Amino acid sequence: MKIALAQTNPTIGDLKANSAGIILRIQQAAQAGAQLVVFPELSLIGYPPKDLLLKPRFINDNITALENIAQHCQNIAAVVGFACPHTGTGRTLHNAAALLQNKQVVATYYKQLLPTYDVFDESRYFEPAQSQSVIEFQGRRIGLTICEDIWNEPRPTQRPLYHAQPFAQLAQARVDLVINMSASPFVIGKHQFRLDLFAQQCRKHQLPLIYVNQVGGNDELVFDGNSCAFTNTGHLVAQAKDFQEDLLIVDLDNPDPHCNRVENPLQDVASVHAALVLGLRDYVQKCKFKSVVLGLSGGIDSALTAAIAAEALGPKNVLGVAMPSRYSSPHSVADARQLAQNLKINYHEIPIEPAHAALEQMLDPIFQNLPPDITEENLQARVRANILMALSNKFGHLLLTTGNKSELAVGYCTMYGDMAGGLAVISDVPKTLVYKISKYINRNSEIIPDSTITKPPSAELRPDQLDSDSLPPYDTLDQILQLYVEQEQSQDEIIAQGFDHQTVKRIITLVDRNEYKRKQAAPGLKVTSRAFGFGRRMPIAQNYHPT
Amino acid sequence: MKIALAQTNPTIGDLKANSAGIILRIQQAAQAGAQLVVFPELSLIGYPPKDLLLKPRFINDNITALENIAQHCQNIAAVVGFACPHTGTGRTLHNAAALLQNKQVVATYYKQLLPTYDVFDESRYFEPAQSQSVIEFQGRRIGLTICEDIWNEPRPTQRPLYHAQPFAQLAQARVDLVINMSASPFVIGKHQFRLDLFAQQCRKHQLPLIYVNQVGGNDELVFDGNSCAFTNTGHLVAQAKDFQEDLLIVDLDNPDPHCNRVENPLQDVASVHAALVLGLRDYVQKCKFKSVVLGLSGGIDSALTAAIAAEALGPKNVLGVAMPSRYSSPHSVADARQLAQNLKINYHEIPIEPAHAALEQMLDPIFQNLPPDITEENLQARVRANILMALSNKFGHLLLTTGNKSELAVGYCTMYGDMAGGLAVISDVPKTLVYKISKYINRNSEIIPDSTITKPPSAELRPDQLDSDSLPPYDTLDQILQLYVEQEQSQDEIIAQGFDHQTVKRIITLVDRNEYKRKQAAPGLKVTSRAFGFGRRMPIAQNYHPT
User: Fold this and answer.
1) Residue A370 CA, distance from chain mean position
2) Same domain, yes or no, for A145 and A213?
3) Nearest CA of chain B to the CA of A428: how many Å?
4) Residue B237 and residue B252: Cα distance in Å, rounded?
5) Does ipTM surpass 0.90 in this model?
6) What is the pLDDT of residues A310-338, one digit of tens each?
7) CA atoms within 13 A on the CB side of B92
8) What is the CATH number of the domain that holds A442?
9) Do A422 and B516 touch (CB under 8 A)?
């Protein structure tokens, strides 16, 4: 039996476009000789639809769209993800899959395990299925699972989060094959983890597995695709492309040369780069923008962001703006200009002195002779935001903000200043990884100027300022942040690993105190296991200090 | 038996201060002759603690604090809310209550029904109890419930959200009394709903009920207190104060004159006003600020915000700043000045022309002869934000933002302009309610200038601009928004109620399109059943249009 893995890139809520994409893939799969085509989790409406699911009219429209798609399933069956109303006690919906066959919705199946952690809120919307789902299809018993359903296998380091184990239940129910429809977001290193987990489960239960994942960016999340198929010995026999749509035909019985293609997925730094390019492109296009603007400081963060934007949208659709102040060094503007030339993006220079001086004079009667402090630094960042937002408003460019995760963690950024923008492209990229991605971009030729990469980082908001004046070296900072933010380790645990007591204490205090800034941050593309944003929900007015 | 209802105002995560408050109330309750003192849900750590719960060290510290509190329970027992580790399959915590007696933690009980909707995320953290909790205490059987546990009774208009019905289960288990520990946030009209629901359940199950609610503001949520007690005939026999801490002694057997006080809670507009005052005060103080700054436009939104701030913090701790532009009418500054005088708050005037003109000149080479549009309007709002944030940074005032819910809904506000600030005091208050609260504030004397209340609303960002140029009348707008945002009605359903087709369509489009602005909005105090913010989670890059 040939099964088509339809790795689609839906736009959230766009029932019309998503239906058209699904119908096209059904036709292509049928032409390729597949008997069954499988789509990702909630493929009709896109994942995650969030509170769109609370609109009764939206649920009705998704049922109508599903029935329309069924009309296109005559010589092929399809499994499509959708939101199914649930009547009776409990939440009003199921996270569901429909089997479409002979122009009809012949059966529906529900997700059992509903992730409700990190960026996932499924218990907010869905009632879980009480038992596993088995499809009888062309003489085979197929176990149907949705994403989390196959992630609850006991692992040595983790206790089970759920009481049910659908994969094991399906093995007991003597199915011939397990299909998993997913919307599993990219995190650095996660695809290898998936491959290992899936292969181990196939071996354990002696069952083949077909895994179909969503691809594309939806707000903070980037889905990497990487759909794949395993034999019952855990052998990987097919793998779709990463970071783009794909239609992969799999035959687990009699593979012929046209089936079971195995693509080679990107790893490590290259995979993060690809995720950021896709996430940026999809956010801009799905929000119906064509072009972006960003400030170019001459530093590495804005250079990396510009390079990602140029790759995602084409250089014509990127405008970089250098906005030197009285404290900017000449090399900053030179580096910004060189970057724009290398990338072939549009470029302006607008010195901020006139507005900077005007604001200082306006405030002078009130500030009088008070010494300069962070106020004057922030003023410059905010004048720059005024200029960038004016260009955004006048020409319809989406403003990109360029701060990295290390800065955002410790609050080394200005609200309504450099934090202004519609998308924070690298806000989940620690500074040390910013360097690695920049070097990856320069792997063939110098795109980001070497001087941008090699000079010591500085915000240039007062004379001779350097990041290292007020922060520990970035390799130390990033290690502490990884332990504190991603791993939720305590101060004592981090110090016990050999970090300086005062440094750890100061960094943790900075992270905790700057929650109010992150509350108002632009959505940022998630690439680590724990990003600031939707998946990390901290109170602002709180006062926890370890005893 | 005398039971003390300890209506406390915890700070999230402040185990030291919260413990001290609990111990003080235990001592006061013992002195008043109570045998048992009951605290609100999660009273030791404050509600909602959000992702603080994911820190293992925080959970350990909360256990240590609980054991310390137990040392103070010798001649009285206490029931305290805390987060209890859960071992075995499932989530790592229970939302729990501890019975403290004879200097020990003698028993722990778990919440059964975990709200996971609107602002509530309890399935993210907690494993539900599988059965009801009964305390044997001084010869009585007390059924212990936590908040949501008693909200699942079948009602004519609503299907049950949960499979268990703890109140009915406790009746079957033949308890003598039900205690409910709550953290139930204020929503306009909700307390009357609670009283009706609780009374009806007492009558149905012939059981008395004691309800102890948290009070105080925590980020977006304001808890109103209003703890109360009912007989088994549903008769309200005691009610604590609203919007402040209280210790209420209840004797359901032999009420004496020192027990069973019944306070008279505020209603309607007065209750919203009190909620905003408390929410503002607690946010400012729990964030360790002493004073606030805000822009005074001469309009009603900033006037109302200033009046609430003056009442919450004292007028000395409020700075109002008028920042007229070339388009401001003379009466705007006069009204702002009059308001500041009436409120006795601090006041500055800083015309924005110098920075406004400087920015225009800086942008002129790029804008050239393009016609003025929203760009130039936003520029003024952002210059004002620069000034206000500079005052905030220099003097340590928290900046309050003053936009109302109607504006925020349709995007009639400027990012990094009038949306700038640490707290959005009235962002859940529709414009029509802004007028009602303003008139309530003026009930005894003119505090908000009459001219501010009577003049037609205008942003004054271009010559002779009025809100009514681009928006329907506010009473129409607010009705449409209520149906769309709070009730999730569809366009067709709203039109069917007699609203103009084009108007409804335009308003809905504006609400949907401006999600990106609200993503970066300051936290706002929730007073309606559905506020923008944490409890409304909409995708930004989405494209749902009803078919």
Assistant:
1) 44
2) yes
3) 17
4) 8
5) yes
6) 999 999 999 999 999 999 988 999 999 99
7) 11
8) 3.40.50.620
9) yes
